[in-house]
Amino acid sequence: MSELPHGPRAEVKRLPERARYDAEVVHAILDEGLVCQVGFVVDGQPFVIPTTYARQGSRLLLHGSPASRMLRDLRKGVPVCISVVLLDGLVLARSAFHHSMNYRSVVVVGTAHEVNDPDEKEEALRAFVEHVVPGRSADARGPNDHERQFTRVLRVDLEEASAKVRSGGPADDDEDLALPVWAGVIPLTLTPGTPEPDPAHPPSEPAPGYATAYARPASKPRD
Asked: Long-range contacts of range 7-14, CB-CB < 8 Å, 24 or more positions apart?
């Protein structure tokens, strides 16, 4: 199991026993997530923008319109911090102080670089589709020249990254264990519903298997 170079900016300071620096854990959490929060500062003003992403090997990919202020600023070399969190459960303790949540999260710190090579950009655009719905890019029409021109792609290498994981039940104080209060975990999962076809679909065209059996890749919580 290889360890990612996390550096001081990505090192977990609070509750370091929950830190994970191995690439397998970090990659699995990123692969399961769908939305990231992109944080950066411009002229002293902090911004945090939610957006979709994809992982391609040891880097994260971001994309959007060339008119996007976030992408325009990031391509100039503004330092960026990207976070992804998966919520696994609500932890109900006997005391209000020890209530918590079970989660898996990743923080990536670095600098974004624009992807300009045509072949590399084409692979990145395909990766975005495959990250959200694996198998979909084989069916959907790929981007045309106009769409490529009006889509900017940035990459952030996973040179400083760390994961943090909380799992298990409540951590009540010993003196509270006898309290007549229910304690435990309410599990939370992302559950897809039944696919709803576009009304323009021919009635005889069934939903593909990747839609009817949609699921995110699982990264199990680790103590």
From this structure: 7/109, 7/159, 7/160, 9/109, 9/160, 10/107, 10/108, 10/109, 10/160, 10/161, 10/162, 11/162, 12/162, 12/164
Q: Which residues of 10-30 are buried (b: 16+ CB within 10 A; e: fewer)?
A: bebeeeeebbbbebebbbbbb
41: CATH: 2.30.110.10
Residue 189 lies in a domain: no
Q: What is the pLDDT of residue 208?
A: 93
- pTM value is 0.89
For 64-113, what is each residue's pLDDT tens digit?
999 999 999 999 999 999 999 999 999 999 999 999 999 999 999 999 99
- Cα separation, 221 vs 223, in Å, equals 7
The boundaries of the domain holding residue 151 are 7-88+101-168
Tokens of 78: 């503004």
**Where does the pLDDT of residue 205 fall: very low under 50, low under 70, confident under 90, or very high at 90 and above?**
confident
Tell me if 179 is assigned to some domain.
no
Strands (E), 145-206: 152-157, 161-166, 184-187
What's the total number of domains in the chain? 1
d(CA 37, CA 25): 19
d(Cα 184, Cα 92) in Å, to the nearest integer? 5
Q: Average pLDDT of the chain?
A: 91
Residue 132 domain-assigned (yes or no): yes
Tell me whether residue 47 is in a domain.
Answer: yes
